[in-house]
Design a protein that fits this description.
The structure holds 2 protein chains of 2 kinds. Chain A is an all-beta fold. Chain A has no helices and 11 strands. By secondary structure, chain B is mainly beta. In chain B, strand 4 and strand 5 form a beta hairpin. The chains are: A mainly beta, B mainly beta.
Amino acid sequence: DIQMTQSPSTLSASVGDRVTITCRASQSISSWLAWYQQKPGKAPKLLIYKASSLESGVPSRFSGSGSGTEFTLTISSLQPDDFATYYCQQYNSQGTFGQGTKVEIK
Amino acid sequence: QVQLVESGGGVVQPGTSLSLTCAASGFSFNYYGMHWVRQAPGQGLEWVAVAPYDTSVQFYSDSVKGRFTISRDNSKNTLYLHMSGLRPEDTAVYYCAKDRQKKGAGTPGFWGQGTLVTVSS
């Protein structure tokens, strides 16, 4: 099984900050990685697929990078609507999510 | 617009069975892989299973393999999840999701609102 490890688990930031979340895979997954945003009581929303491709309708302040085993999600300038929990997901073999990163207000 | 409506959740006893249904509309259901993903209360997301668009081989997480069966009826635009041998650790909100890519089976792109399954004696 492929394990996904996100860091940090919680991140405190202010509006306008640049935020980076890291996701590591236990083995190479090429670029088969997605990022999701989830707000309390709501279904997750796809942000990024294939490591760096922005899903339609997602603001350009979100970007993804990486390949192999190490990946990052960057929010270039944090907005009030961005306070949420973020998950990575590998889909190289079945599908495994990371444990999540909660972005909270500093 | 795309809609996914899950139903069938409820409270069941350990060891019993339950079937979930996801009614899809607003897209060509028969061209998209469909996923089930679950989330235990206060916990993260767990991918459960995927049914490719052409009803070929299904894929499961190790935690449900042999107990859960995903299936689809393309004539009814409906996805199913039959769960047997339920355990307390299966308690979760179960989400149905459409793959983001036509004929894809990797990335849940659009999600329903979920249905809660509680396994408790």
